[in-house]
Amino acid sequence: MKKNTLLILCLCCFLITKGENGYDLWLRYKPVSNHILLSVYRKNITQLITGDSSATMNIIKNELLTGIAGLLQTEIGYHHSVTRDGAIIAGTPRSSALIRNAGIATQLQAAGDEGFVITTKKINGKQCILISGNSEKGVLYGAFHFLRLLQTEQPITSLHIVSAPKIRLRMLDHWDNPNRTVERGYAGFSIWNWHTLPTYIDQRYIDYARANASIGINGTVITNVNANAVILTPAYLEKVKALADVFRPYGIKVYLTARFSAPIEIGGLKTADPLDAGVQQWWREKIKEIYTYIPDFGGFLVKANSEGQPGPQDYKRSHADGANMLADAIAPFNGIIIWRAFVYSHDNPLDRHKQAYDDFVPLNGKFRDNVMVQVKNGAIDFMPREPFHPLFGAMPQTPLMMEFQVTQEYLGQGTSLVFLAPLFKETLESDTYYKGKGSTVAKVIDGTLDGHRLTGIAGVANIGNDINWCGHPFAQANWYTLGRLAWDPAISSEQIAGEWLRMTFSNQPDFLKTASQLMLESRDIIVQYSNPIGLHHIMGTGHHYGPAPWVSNQQRPEWNPVYYHKSDSNGIGFDRTVTGSNALAQYYPGARKQWENSHTCDEKYLLWFHHVPWNFQLKNGRNVWEELCFQYYTGAERAGKMRDTWNTLRPFVDQQRFEQVSMLLKIQHEEATWWRNACLLYFQTCSRLPIPLQYEKPGHTLEYYKNLRFPYAPGI
Ligand code: BDP
C-alpha cells in the first residue's frame, strides 16, 4: 500500500471512530446511502432558484444548498432562470414570478399563512420541483420538509404535498433563569448567556432557531415560569431584543414570562392589584416599551397564584381579572397572554387533582379574545402516565393551549431513554366526550370543536448548553416530537420515531426496525418500573430524582408522595370516586365510565382513581400486590434488555454516540432496579406480603434506599 493511501485510510478510521457529538441534531445532511436513490436525486435536483432576496430567503437558499451538497455530495448551482431539468424553485408568489405563474394558486390557498406546497411541475418545458408558501416562513418550512424527504430517503419524482399546521402557536417554554440555571433542566446550563448579550451572539442562538424552524416551532418563551422581573428592565430587554432579532428570520417570535408583582418589584408601586389604575398604567407603559425593542413581541406566559408565585388572588381578584388586565394592555400590539392553569394552593384542602378545574371552569368565557389558558396534559403534573386533564372540554368558550413537558422531570431526567411521542399522543387521542364520542383532546386543542382561532401546543424545553443540546442523545427526539406533533397532532409515534432515527442516525432498515421499537416501548417501560398501574408522584422530593414513596414530612400535604399513593395496611391507591375526592366528577360521563368502577377501570389507572385492598384481583388473576411485584420486576428487566438491544446496533452507529447511549442505558437499568427495590420494599411494609420467590431479592434494605441523598441532583 502506498504511503498516501495508508494515511488517508488512517484518517478515515480516525474520523469514524471519533464519531459525532450530536450538535447537528437531525440536520446532519450526511450522504444518501442508497445509491439508486442517490442517482435519482442527482438527476432530479440540479439547480436552485429562489425568490427575491430577504433575510429568510437567504436562510432558505443556504439551507437548501448546504443540505443538498451534503446529501447528494454534489454542488448544485444557484441560478436565476430554469435552464435544465431538475430545478428547485423556492419562493412565495410575491417574491418569485416563476411561483406566481406556476398555476398553483389553489394549492397555495390550502396552505394558509404558514403552510407550504411542494410540487413537481414542468416550467419552460423543464421538470422542476416547486417549494412554495404564501409567506416566506411557509417556504422555509417547505424547504426543511423537502430536505427531510431526502434525509429519510423518500421518492421525489412526483411530489404533490400541501401541508398546513393544525396548530397556530407551536412553542417551546424554557424554564431558564437569569443566572443560567434551568429549572428541571438536565442538559447543562441555559443556552442564553445573559451576561454577554446583547453584543455577543452565540452561534448556538442561530442554530437553535434553525433547528426549531426545521420542525415548525414558531414561538419561544425564553424565561422560567417562576419568573424574575429583571427580564422586564431595559438592560435585559436589550438582550431579549438581540435574541428576537436572531429568531425573526426563522419565523420565531419571542415571548416572556411576566412576574405578576413586577409593578412593585421594578416599578416602585405599592400594589400589583390588576384593578388598580396605576398598575394598569404601569403594564401599559411597560408593554409599549417592550414593543419599541421587539415590534413583533409575542406576549406573556404567566404562572400566577401557584406554588407561591404572586397573582391576582393576592388581591382577591380572579385569574380572569389578572389575565384580562395584561390582555388589554397588550391588545393594541396584537400580543397575547398565555395564562397557566397549573394552580394549586396549600390552603385548599381539596384533592390537588381538582383545584385547577374548580378555579378555572367558572371563568369559562370570561377571558379576553387574546388570552389562552395553558393546561398541562394531566391534572397533577407531567406524570409518566396521567389521565388527560379534565379542563379539556370544560371551557369551550376559552381557547386552551396544551402544555407538555419535553424535559423529563418525572421520566428519568437526563439519564433515561424515554421517547415521549406515545405519551403526548395518549393525551391527544383521549376522548373527553364533551361533544359526544370522538371529542378528543386534540380536537379541543386544535380549535375544531369550538371554532377557536387561537390554538397552541407548548412543550417545556429540554435544551441546555450541553454539546448535544439535550444531554441524552435520544432526548433530542422529544424536542423533535414536540414540533412535529404541534404541526399535526395526527402524526403517529411510529412515523416520528422513524423520521428522527433516519435523520439522526441511519436509514438502514435493520437499524430502524430495532431502534424504533426500542423508542416506542421506552415510555411503557419507565411507567412499569417507576409508576405502574396508576401510581404517581412518588419520586424523590424536591429534585424528583428516583423513588421516595415513603416521604411524608413535607410542609404541604400534596408535596408528599404518601399523599398520592395512600398505601397502608388496608390497601393502596387514591380514591377519586364518589366515596373519595370525587375528582372523577370533573370528567364527562363517557370518560368517567372507563374509570369509575374499580372492577372495570382501565387498569393503567387503577391506583390513580381507586384505593383497593392488597388482595384486590386484577383481570389477569393476580392481586394488587402480586401485580405491583410483576410490573416492577418486568419493567426493570425490560430496562436491562434495552441495553442489550442497543448493543446489537453498534454496527450502525458512530462510536461516540453509541458509547454514550450504552453508558446511559446502564445507568437507566441501575435506576430501574433501584425504583423496583425501593418501591417494593416500602410498599411491603404496608402490604406485609412477601415478594414472590421467583424474583431475585432486592440488593439492599429499605433503610439503605431511604438514606440515599442527592443534594446536587440537577434541575433544581
Ligand atoms: C412542576 C415543577 C416545577 C415547576 C412547576 C410548574 O416541579 O419546577 O415550576 O411544575 O409547572 O412540574 O410551574
UniProtKB/TrEMBL annotation:
Domain Alpha glucuronidase N-terminal: 25-146
Keyword Cell wall biogenesis/degradation: no
Record's keyword terms, sorted: Carbohydrate metabolism, Glycosidase, Hydrolase, Polysaccharide degradation, Xylan degradation
Pfam families registered for this protein in UniProt: Glyco_hydro_67C, Glyco_hydro_67M, Glyco_hydro_67N
Organism expressing this protein natively: Chitinophaga hostae
SUPFAM superfamilies: (Trans)glycosidases, beta-N-acetylhexosaminidase-like domain
Name listed for the protein in its UniProt record: Xylan alpha-1,2-glucuronidase
Quaternary structure and interacting proteins, as annotated: Homodimer.
